[in-house]
């Protein structure tokens, strides 16, 4: 099965696009941080072929010439970014989104570019990235915007602690702070006393959640920010120096574009840095 090849790997989707190469760079660094191998994956409409480690790809049949070229280029980019990272190839017959969702059943992390071949020209985000980010069984990072090195990891805090824990793990490996952001609103109320009491309640609840993980990740500097804002996406995109924004997803069905709330859709389309989606 394709999933077996991805077991505990960081998987990067590869095609001929520059966005895919940006994803490979990010994935190579992440595989090194996690001590995992990097699996470069390409799906194509040709006979099924499963290639082994990248040193052996010179024996690939001519039928795979294009895929072989893109994967070798991606491997060179990965090796230049993270020398010594273990690299493997996977080529499969089929549709990229479906293959990547299948692989996500055993992968540790999927990394994709925001656009790829077959995407709609001018679209804010490619259909493959949107579908996989919403449907995958493991965390997904969609690489877009500027890749920064020193900025914080920003987490959108909702009801799922897995989002916050993923952010702490990412921050620990990068030796950067975490900013936990919770956007809240209380309808249309504007009475100062009521607003102040609600703000205090939200700040205290957020502080407890952040402190609960600080004990597990003592080397991570973390701060919480409870923001009265109807738009969580707007609150999360206020951090111009963020190197990664992490959110959750409701994942309600198979139709691309209908799987996220407005926060996920807006961040995946407009964020100025990579976006991590935790299921």
State the gist of this model:
The chain has 9 helices and 10 strands. It has 279 residues and is an alpha/beta fold.
- CATH homologous superfamily identity of the largest domain: HUPs
Walk across the major sheet and give the strand order.
Answer: 3-2-1-4-5-10-9-6-7-8
Sheet with most strands: 10 strands, mixed
Question: Radius of gyration over alpha carbons?
Answer: 20 Å
What global shape is seen? Answer: elongated
Provide the residue-averaged pLDDT: 83
What's the CATH first level of the largest domain?
Answer: Alpha Beta
Structural class, by secondary structure, is alpha/beta
Strand and helix order: HEHEHEHEHEEHEHEHEHE
Total number of distinct structural domains:
2
What is the helix content? 25-40%
**Within the CATH hierarchy, at the fold level, what is the topology of the largest domain?**
Rossmann fold
- How far apart the termini lie comes to 23 Å
Low-pLDDT ranges: 46-60, 118-123, 251-259
Would you report the number of β strands?
A: 10
CATH architecture title of the largest domain = 3-Layer(aba) Sandwich
Per DSSP, the total helix count is 9
Q: Proportion of β residues?
A: 15-25%
List strands and helices in order, with pairings:
Layout: H1 2-5, E1 10-13, H2 18-34, E2 38-44, H3 65-81, E3 87-93, H4 96-103, E4 109-113, H5 127-135, E5 140-143, E6 153-156, H6 161-174, E7 178-184, H7 192-214, E8 222-228, H8 232-236, E9 244-248, H9 262-270, E10 275-278
Parallel strand pairs: 1-2, 1-4, 2-3, 4-5, 6-7, 6-9, 7-8, 9-10
Antiparallel strand pairs: 5-10
